Structure formats: C-alpha cells, structure tokens
Amino acid sequence: MDIQVRTEQIINGQTVTHRQLEALAAVGRTGSLTAAAHEMGITVPVVHRYIANVEAAAGEPVTKSTPAGTKLTPTGQEIADCYWATEARCQDRHPFTVCCSPVTEDLLMSVLSALKMTDVELIISDDPHNLGLMKQDMVDLAIIDDPLYLFDIEDFNFDAAEIGYMGMVYVDNGPSFIRYRYGAQRVAFMFLDTMKKPYQVDSETYSLPELLGSSKSFFVDEFLLTRKGLRMKSAVDPKILRHAITAVYRRENRQVARIVKALQARHIS
Asked: Which helix (H) or strand (E) holds 11?
C-alpha cells in the first residue's frame, strides 16, 4: 500500500494548496518563474496564477522582480520556509541533509562536488531556520555563519566544529542601514554598539543585488563578495569584524566527518 502525505497551509483563514506552495518554493529555489514552471512541468501563466493565490491569502506580495530574477519577499520566504519544514516532517526518513546560508552555499556545493556526494539534500536558508531544522532532527549537518546562535543550542546534544573564519565588509553610507538576512549580522551591529555609532535599521533583504544596489549602509561577508567576483571598499578592516563559521551536527558519521574535514581543508580565513 502506497500512502503519501501532502501539506497545505491556512493563511489568514484561506487555504493554500500543496501545489500553490510548491510553486512558491520552486520560485524561491530557482529565482525564476520560467525555471519554476519548467521544474514543475507547467506553464509560466499557471505559476503566476498559483503565486497570485498565495498572495491573495497572505494579503501582500510574496515575490518581487529584481535584476537578478524573481525573489521571495520576507512574507514569501516565511511561507516557503514553513512549507519546506512541514514537507520534511511528512517524510518518514529524510535523506542525508545539509543546510547553510547563501554566504557558504558556493563553498559547500564545491566541497560536495569534490567529494562526489551527489545524493545529499541541500537546504539554503538563514541561521535561525537552519538551527530550527537541526532541533527538529530534519537535517544532519548545519553550517552556521553567526557564532552567537551557538548559545541558542547549548541545551541540545549537538557537536560543533569550527571550519574557518570570515571578515565582514562595512559599507558606510550614513546612519540608515539595510540589514542582510544572512551572515553574522548581530556581530556586525554589536560592533556599532561598541563604537557608540548611531544607526537605525530601516529595511531588511534576502537579496544580495538589492543589498549591493541600496543607497543605505550595510554589512556583508567579504567571502561572499569574493566568491561572486565583487570588490567593495570597507569603512573598517574586514578583519575587525572577523567571525567563526561553525559546522553543527547531532552525531558524527562518515558523511559528516568527510564534509567537515573537507571544509576545514579549504582554510577559510
């Protein structure tokens, strides 16, 4: 007997179907309506309709167009994250799964490719969501950018290993900041607090192009810029905002050990 479970969401009292959620998640993962339609085997107008249904329930936009493609808004990302988490919980046994943020995405993918680990499930999200998946036993290994989050998991039976260090670029365009949702942002803003420098965070973004194109001040990991072939002038030496990158795992097995060792061998600094 074949039994399958599919998730739905009730948003503001309106039912959003599994297929509509799948379309939103596909857009978030691929960054393109066309790519999402191709992945799902449907047409672009149908994807538009599914997204419109989600927006009608949310009462606000869940996607936005950028020069780099179509991205999820914070509301869309929240809905997609919930979808991914509930989908994972509906599986009796999940494949070996690793999660990280866009800061270390390219690094992790290059390591997985070098190790020929093609059967690994990879989830890209921010540190709080990735640690939430760890707590729910939905992932086997999480790469965490912000070391301050490690205090949030002290009561859990996790092991941790530092895999390297990164510095952050501080683009100073005045006291108005746009906050990137990835990287050790709390470490960076603690630096401003220590320097007693006045500031206010006026917006947040999941989009690197939106961050870099903003006229506001911001922090971003130098490593991420380097991987993208970008150079930006920093108001302080990025080493001043240096922070640890940490691999967190529930139990060490052969796959975890191989990935951690390979990441440490890259000598991120």
From this structure: strand 9-11
The predicted-structure confidence for 8-17, as pLDDT tens digits, reads as follows: 889 999 999 9
**252 pLDDT exceeds 90?**
no
Tokens of 157: 């039976």
Label residue 217 exposed, middle or buried (CB < 10 Å: 0-12, 13-18, 19+).
buried
* Cα 256 from Cα 178, distance rounded (Å): 35
Radius of gyration for the chain, computed over Cα atoms and rounded to the nearest angstrom: 19
- Backbone φ, ψ for residue 253 (5° rounding): -130, -175
Residue 225 · residue 169 · CB < 8 Å: yes
Whether 152 and 126 have beta carbons less than 8 Å apart is answered as no
28: left (phi over 0), alpha (psi -120 to 50) or beta: alpha
User: Does the domain spanning 1-92 belong to CATH 1.10.10.10?
Assistant: yes
Domain 94-269 class in CATH: alpha beta
What residues form DSSP beta bridges with 115? Answer: none
* H or E segment and range at residue 193: helix 185-194
Same topology between domain 1-92 and domain 94-269: no
Q: Where are the domains of the chain?
A: 1-92, 94-269
Q: How many residues does the chain have?
A: 269
Handedness of CA 138, 124, 78, 6 (dihedral sign): negative
- The reported pTM is 0.68
Collapse the DSSP code of 203 into the 3-class scheme (helix H, G, I; strand E, B; otherwise coil) and give the result: strand
pLDDT, tens only, 47-86: 999 999 999 999 999 999 888 789 999 999 999 988 887 7
